[in-house]
Amino acid sequence: MKATVLIIDDEAKLRGLMSRIISLEGYHVLEAGDGKAGLKILEREPVSVVLSDVKLPDANGVELTQTIRLKYPLTEVIVLTAFGTIADGVKAIQNGAFDYLTKGDDDEKIIPLLNKAVEKAQLRSRIQKLERKISEKFSFNNILGSSNAILEVKALAQKVAQTDTTVLLMGETGTGKEVFAQSIHEASIHRAKPFVAVNCSAFGKEILESELFGHKAGAFTGAIKDKRGLLEEADEGTIFLDEIGEMNIDLQAKLLRVLETSEFYKVGDTKPTKVNVRIIAASNRNLLEETKNRNFRLDLFYRLSVFQIRLPSLNERAEDIEAYAFHFARIFAEKMNKPVPKIDKEFLDMLKRHNWTGNIRELKNVIERAVILSDETLNPASLPFDFASEGSCFVFDLAQAEKLHIQRILQYAKGNKAEAARLLNIALATLYRKLKDYGLE
């Protein structure tokens, strides 16, 4: 079914005629004889477009337009004016109406105009849904974990999100610094403005300078036209400078100027560019130590670390590993069009004992691999081979070690039991007996 259209007009015959014309186009049509009745319908029904007469028994269509646009911003309004009251139509547009039509002037204009208004209303709706989905995706509620370590960090981030304060996120690689940066942005007053992420380690000095600050045409070979930098693109929003410790010392001075004056010079420009942008920086290095080694400016460090948050490593929050494992298993199963797998207890125990040098990013990769290799259950056989050989994950129980080895060989043999028995150098009957003993049938 197409969109819903509401006609508000006290002339019953005209209202009925318009309703039939619009219904023939496939629209769902509702009718109201006055402004009060129209607003009641809007309270209970999602309406894409309102067609409202200017002169109503209990309301002025121009003022009604303003009320509708304020209360129902996804609804478009087309005002119907009588001959000689076109000025009312113009005023209605100023109040937010999509357009106006003069009654009886040209009935052929109704449907094309209505189609355009519906298209705009549906576009607004899609944009709002997309923005809501993005906002929900990067909500603090979607940062997994119930450990004290992560709850304390989330509480700090939520508090600073309400301010314009510069934030420095510290932590090992893979701890989710960009996720936190975007969550801070989505919870701030800048949420409707751009969030721009830059990995400072991905560019050399000259390229990063041009990317961040922009350049004027002719500033260097190949600069054939003016270019806006990412700081300009993030104006009124947030810029996330990941791996800030990799930034060249000369560029650090230019960034310091942005923090102090909210302005900078583009490459090759003689006039400053003003920006209003929130800066969130991140590093896996100890920046204070880097200042002692003269790799990072001390004044910039203090400007960036007004509010510093250290993200805990996954090893510091082992109790959260299970939640991440189930979360990633569901995501990858859906991507691969596979049923969401169960997770074996031994599999989870091995995850919890593992030394996660790559943190959440490493765990995500391990789960993706396991989902690819497994059918119904994620078990130890679907883990990388180095998990079994790690001192922290070493299986001392002989029966458990044999069970795990059989699982791995079966995985290697793609479930072919005869081939698995050959590789294990045991009789097929012996393999079947062991499978039964270990509950692996």
Shape: flat
Count of runs of 4 or more consecutive helical residues? 19
| Fraction of helical residues | 40-55%
Neighbour order of strands in the largest sheet: 2-1-3-4-5
CATH H-level homologous superfamily name of the largest domain: P-loop containing nucleotide triphosphate hydrolases
Number of domains: 3
Major sheet: 5 strands, parallel
- Report the β-strand fraction as a percent range: 5-15%
Topology, number of strands: 16
The Rg value, from CA coordinates, equals 31 Å
Class by helix and strand content? Answer: alpha/beta
Classified by CATH, the class of the largest domain is Alpha Beta
Average pLDDT figure: 87
Distance between the termini: 52 Å
CATH topology of the largest domain: Rossmann fold
The CATH architecture of the largest domain: 3-Layer(aba) Sandwich
The low-confidence parts are none
What does this structure look like?
The protein is an alpha/beta fold. The protein folds into 3 domains: 4-134, 3-Layer(aba) Sandwich (Rossmann fold), CATH 3.40.50; 140-312, 3-Layer(aba) Sandwich (Rossmann fold); 315-437, Helicase, Ruva Protein, domain 3. Helix content is 47%, strand content 14%. The protein contains 19 helices and 16 strands. The strands form 5 sheets. It has a 5-stranded parallel beta sheet, with helices on both faces. Strands 7-10-13-6-14 form a 5-stranded parallel beta sheet. Helix 3 (61-71) packs parallel to helix 4, helix 13 (321-335) crosses helix 15 and helix 17 (398-412) packs across helix 18 (417-424). The relative contact order is 0.07.
